[in-house]
Amino acid sequence: MNKNLFIALIVLCISALQLRAQSSLFKIDTLQYQGTDKHIVNLVILGDGYTKAQLDDYAADAKQFTNYFFSIEPFKQYSSFFNVFAIRTISEESGAVHDCKAGDCVHGETDLSKYPPRYNKFTRDHAVPIAHPNTIFGSSFDNGGLHRLVVPQKNDRIEEVLKMHTPNYTQVVVLVNSPFYGGSGGKWATSTVNFKSNDIAVHEIGHSFAQLADEYWAGNQYAIESANRSQSADAKQVPWKYWLGKDGVGIYSYGGKGSPSNWFRPHEYCKMQYLVAPFCPVCQEQFVASIKKKSSPFIQVKPALDKPITLDSVQKFSLRLAKPSPNTFKMSWLLNDQTIATDIDSIYLDPGMLSVGANTLKVMIQDTTNLLRNPSYVNHRDSVVWTFNQVKLLELAKPSTTWGDTLETCYGGAQVLTVKHPIAGLEYRWYDAATGFWEETGSNIFLQNIVESKVYLVRGIWDDRVSEKTKVYINILDKIDKPKNIHVKIDKKKNTVQLTVKDKVDARYNYIWLNEEGNPIYEWDEFNGEYVRPTGVNNVLTMKLTTSSGKIYVQKIDKETTCKSEKTIVIF
After folding, report:
1. Which CATH fold topology does 486-571 show?
2. Which residues form the signal peptide (predicted)?
């Protein structure tokens, strides 16, 4: 082999290795993280024309774009379905290539030194200086005969950076460090950092992410059927027929003569036509459908679904979900196709509910958002399924209660009985142990005006199977006698009334006074900023006559148990 050729090959190999090594050093900023990239839309931002010294500017620009992106519907409602990563790609020189060869280019020079470093409010028809910086992706103006069409030229370099950093990317945005208006679509949505250019990137994402058509006439070569463009004007045939008559959706012509007159769009004010507009309902629906197609609401599932489960004891099944905001999910848990729970993210399952042989536990999610109208989208269900191979029939587990087998309550008070970790789908029945009669159902029951100690029993029921009963004893504390001897002293000169409970003082008790509406008159704790119970006897209350209705109540309180007596009324 020729010696010079051999040396040249070695140099090329070294250069390639250096290039790859440089790419591997780029830092990734995680601007939003919702979950594993296998279940989420991965929005990846790349910077072009940012030198190493300008990486903080790039970080700020990437954050600004992200904030803008999630301020637009439907991304705002579905932001939890997105991860956002910004790769800090470095260019040798700053800016973008500009030859000013397009017919609509405004010739002239702009002295950028007159402006602050991050000045980016140049109008779209402003003169852009001729420039040929060496940037990592080679983004340039003046493509396709349009000055504002800014396109990265080094696509292989973009592919390489993505492969090494975020191979599971879903949508890519290239931010070009130029203060002048411009951007483009295609495989990579591209935007300069001009204050109006973010809309270009979002518009272009409509093409690449949701396969939306332009709702302005871009030329015959783009005249193909799409979710928001059709050559049919038949209300029964247009792709957006389910939206007709809703929020301005209709059938509108692209133009009066020539090719545009043969094509139709759904709206007269949509971001796919005007950058400053919101997305119309038809386009928003397509975005939501695309988000669902490219992601899953099931970010994490426990236990894992990788193998069948043998259930021999009560087990928890849980989900971590990406949800719209506001949440429009309708969720169902089904055991062997029988609904056992709805609209909760976790359940407990008892093996005693399973049959011998094959069993399934399925979770189904339907999005009821009003952003969807097409039946194929509305009726879509996301689901996960656990499978069980049950070897033998097991008994239902005996219920356990949250606070054990004994609860105390005040005389005449209330109590709540709660099953700990209730099993989805089971019916819980509570019985009076003395009579054996079934009194209440539910995993959480509320008992009122209890005046005697009593034993309750609870059991779980599933179809024709019943668990053993669990015993709960409710112990009633001693009844507290209400205050009897209240002395009233009125001082007309001071315009006050003093109320005093004259009953024998007992350090275990104090008194609470209530106004005519029955609201306690507590002390104000200045330090903690809240009302607190008195620590002393509190058997004396002095009030202004003008602030009183002439009717006050008083209760005796056990300071240890906080149990109360009946109220005594005082009229003066």
Report:
1. Immunoglobulin-like (2.60.40)
2. 1-21
